[in-house]
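>> Question from a student workshop board

For tomorrow's exercise we were told to take the sequence and the ligand below, predict the bound structure, and bring the output to class. My setup keeps failing. Could a helper post the expected result so I can at least see what it should look like? The ligand is heme C.
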Amino acid sequence: MKITLKPLLYSVFCGLLLLASCSSGEVSPNKEELTESKKEAAEEQRLAEGKAIYESNCAGCHNSDVAGSPTPGDKADWKDRMAQGVEVMAKKSIQGFEGKKGVMQPRGGNSTLSDQEVTNAVFYMVRISQ
Ligand code: HEC
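>> Workshop helper replied:
Here is what the output should look like for this input. Compare the format with yours to find the bug.
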């Protein structure tokens, strides 16, 4: 019994080692895929939140060109604006600004919106205007 068990245990041990090294080799690309899809999921989430904020707070002006506000999807009107970068546009939307076409109130006039909510809405507007 002792004689047959030892090699058996040994080969089981080796098999386990092999498995461990094999699976650890596979884990890292899987992890990368995971973080990649997590990033995508986070971005989708951000867009969905931005869309909801946009529709209830910004669309009133922006969907109908009120006071010279650029309509999302109007590529010509967004092209130059987008050149300054989403961060700058978000900052201007949070603080309010006067442009060539008109004035936008801070946070579109809704002071209860957080910086993140306004930024998400800008992110959404830019995404559908590219
Ligand atoms: C009362 C009308 C009004 C509302 C509500 C409004 N905007 Fe605007 N927005 C404007 C006008 C007008 C401009 C264009 C000003 C210009 O370029 O002359 C503008 C421009 C912008 C721009 C372009 C910025 C740039 O640098 O060219 C962004 C981004 C923007 N708004 C985001 C938002 C977001 C996000 C909301 C909702 C939270 C919002 N706006 C709500 C009137 C509005």
